[in-house]
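Q: what sequence does this backbone want?
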């Protein structure tokens, strides 16, 4: 053990003090992580990222600011109102921000990832790589298709 202590209940401040601000994660030693805090934080993050269109918007903004029409061109099927609403929600969560885009012929408003939004790129890419590497296995896709049919 590295001097960290386990906590009980919902005492977030004790968990953070005990872990020196590092609450661990998969592979952490027993007693180093407040499991409830880890689970709640994970579920909150997953709730944001798993909303429809969020991953597509983050990917569309990966290489710099884009105007709404440019985002829509990259994300086939998203309606303008849904895009606007989703961008506003992501703005409130400090994942995207409005920026002024100056181009040769015009100036307008676009959207860019914030530092927090940029920090999502690697976890999203890691999940993509995991899916690419593991979901092509025989049987895994079949189970997923069966689960989808059962849900519909």
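A:
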């Amino acid at each position: 053990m590295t001097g960290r202590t386990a906590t009980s209940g919902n005492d977030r401040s004790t968990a953070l003090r005990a872990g020196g601000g590092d609450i661990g994660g998969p592979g952490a030693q027993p007693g180093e992580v407040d499991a409830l805090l880890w689970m709640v934080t994970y579920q909150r993050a997953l709730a944001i990222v798993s909303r429809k269109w969020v991953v597509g918007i983050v990917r569309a903004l990966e290489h710099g600011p884009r105007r709404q029409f440019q985002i829509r061109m990259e994300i086939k099927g998203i309606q303008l109102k849904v895009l606007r609403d989703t961008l506003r929600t992501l703005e409130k969560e400090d994942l995207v921000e409005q920026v002024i885009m100056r181009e040769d012929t015009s100036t307008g408003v676009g959207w860019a990832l914030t530092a927090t939004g940029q920090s999502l790129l690697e976890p999203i890419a890691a999940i993509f790589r995991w899916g690419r590497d593991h979901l092509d296995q025989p049987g895994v896709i079949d189970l997923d298709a069966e689960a989808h049919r059962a849900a519909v």
